[in-house]
Write a structure and sequence with these properties.
four-stranded antiparallel sheet
């Protein structure tokens, strides 16, 4: 038995991007499930799925990442496996093509969990990751537009106020969770973060228990406003509920119900449990996601929560 779920970020997806987003998450799920069918590990599957999403400029991860206040792409990524709760992450990483692959190297090649900024970049170069500019022409144009909106905000400079009045400032996140034939779980998550974020801002994506988590009971990946995911530790909360006997969808629904006081968080969660049940939920207009469930033929891809 094996299964995989991927997401491309919860948010107010514009209609003309929806087809491309669905195609992207489907490709990512196919990349992962192909490896699972060959007997590869859940970690291999989620790494391949997220790498596919990072290479697609439709999504806010890797190529096409949004830009911070200084016009730079500072990216976050993480991986985690259920075996001994091993995890690796990078934050504020620039000028690499696939941050998720660097995060995996942190887990596999060091005794650390999280590397940041120039330290993360130096490590990436030492591991053989070459220089790559992930900034697209479209994101540069969006950054310029949002800088103009920020200048016109007239003092409404707090993160929450900006998100409320300029919903387009909310960035997305991509992620994947998988269960392999050996019964092991893995999760991987990657993000460019928020448009116009302060340089050095760390979101939920690289932090175990916030943007990503995996235990022997399941795995979860989150998307939405990172500051909320950090405070609520949404993915650990999901996995804790799985350990208590909730199935995947029950765990997602219960955690999302805790966020009623965070109406602008735009959170989304995907998860898998030990039985291969899939849980998908979001409190945003849409969240492109795709999955391959045990015993089901093919891959399903949807913008909405229905599974």
């Amino acid at each position: 038995m094996y299964a995989i779920v991927v997401h491309g970020g919860a948010g107010a997806w514009r209609t003309h991007y929806e087809r491309s987003a669905l195609q992207g998450v489907r490709r990512a799920a196919e990349a992962g499930v192909t490896l699972l069918a060959q007997g590869k590990s859940a970690l291999d599957a989620v790494t391949a799925a997220v790498e596919s999403l990072e290479d697609d400029p439709v999504f806010n991860a890797g190529t096409g990442s949004v830009l911070n206040l200084q016009g730079e792409a500072q990216m976050d990524a993480s991986v985690m496996v259920s075996d001994r709760l091993r995890a690796g992450g990078v934050t504020c990483l620039s000028r690499v093509k696939n941050p998720v692959r660097v995060a995996r190297k942190v887990m596999e090649k060091t005794n650390h969990v999280l590397l940041a900024d120039q330290g993360a970049l130096s490590f990436a170069r030492a591991m053989g990751f070459t220089d790559f500019d992930p900034v697209t022409r479209e994101q540069r144009a969006i950054w310029q537009k949002k800088c103009q909106a920020l200048s016109a905000a007239k003092g409404k400079s707090s993160l929450q106020r900006l998100i409320k009045h300029y919903a387009g400032l909310r960035g997305g996140t991509v992620g994947a969770v998988a269960l392999d034939r050996r019964g092991c779980f893995a999760g991987a998550t990657s993000s460019g973060g928020l448009t116009l974020k302060l340089p050095g801002r760390v979101g939920d994506t690289p932090v175990p228990g916030a943007g990503n988590y995996a235990t022997s009971f399941g795995a979860a990946s989150a998307t939405g406003l990172g500051e909320v995911a950090l405070r609520y530790l949404v993915t650990k909360s999901v996995c804790d509920l799985l350990a208590q006997g909730r199935n995947a969808q029950q765990a997602v629904d219960e955690v999302l119900s805790l966020l009623v006081l965070e109406p602008h968080a735009g959170m989304g969660i995907i998860t898998l449990d030990k039985q291969g049940n899939i849980g998908v939920g979001h409190c945003s207009r849409a969240m492109p996601h795709a999955y391959c469930a045990p015993g089901k033929a093919g891959i399903a891809a949807r913008m909405q929560v229905k599974v």
